[in-house]
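Justification of resources, computational component.

The compute hours requested in this renewal are based largely on the per-chain cost of generating structure records like the one below. Each record pairs the submitted sequence with a full structure-token output. That output is archived, and it is also reused by downstream analysis tasks.
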Amino acid sequence: MRVVMPLFDFSYYNGEEFPFIEGKYALQSFIADEEIPQIKLFSKLDIDYMEMESWALVAENPDTSKYKQEVNLLLLSFRIYKLARVFIKYRLCKEDVNLCSRLNNTMGYILPRESTNLVTTNDLKTINKGFLKMLEMDTISNRTHNALYFMYRGFCSEKMMDAFLLLMIALESLFSNEEHYGATKTICSRVSNFLDSKSGCMYNDIEELYVLRSNITHGRIVVSDEIKGKLQTLYKLQYVIIECMKKILNEDVYTIYKNVKDKENYFTKNPA
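The structure output for this chain reads:
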């Protein structure tokens, strides 16, 4: 049994099929006539939409209890390592049409549209390495699982306000301490130090994000779908959290979250 998920906003330079985690998932060419079941779920508009695509993620004999979450992490790896919006909108399965579905939430834009979705085989190798580590990170602790969950949900949010708050929650999941005080200073100092106070990631940059989050949650500003005058702040937040995730994955920092003491010792030994 195979579940086929056409890829949208995906431009692939090399044009060769690519296996993820030793073929459990794979990037394969997509031929709509061969893969789309003739069922009422999919309208003519849906079919026309899918027929425009030429690549898909394919899950061979997937574990139906977890493959959806794993595919979400794979799509998140595309965003982290390539700043790509690559997304799926349909799941197709001719062998079992009960597994077919149309998705309501898809990966959205936060960065300006100048960012490219053009992907090469070398990009896919990097994305796959990150994906493997995220699968492990997802099982390390509640904190790491929640951080990945909120990050993915943030990138799939249609509303600017939702995206901002969910990405801030992801950041807090990774960098907050075990106490119930000094949250602002803790988050700002830990994140800025973790990223070596690089441009756009200094203490004041993180503080700007956290102050906005606090103003929203404590009712000091009126909530609406858009954060008026703060689009650049959302760009900054995406940059910060992606830079954090790349370092967490590339340097295996996520392993410290197995144990609360190890996590706290890590940040204590690396103060701002």
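Residues 141-269 form one domain. The first strand starts at residue 2 and ends at 8.
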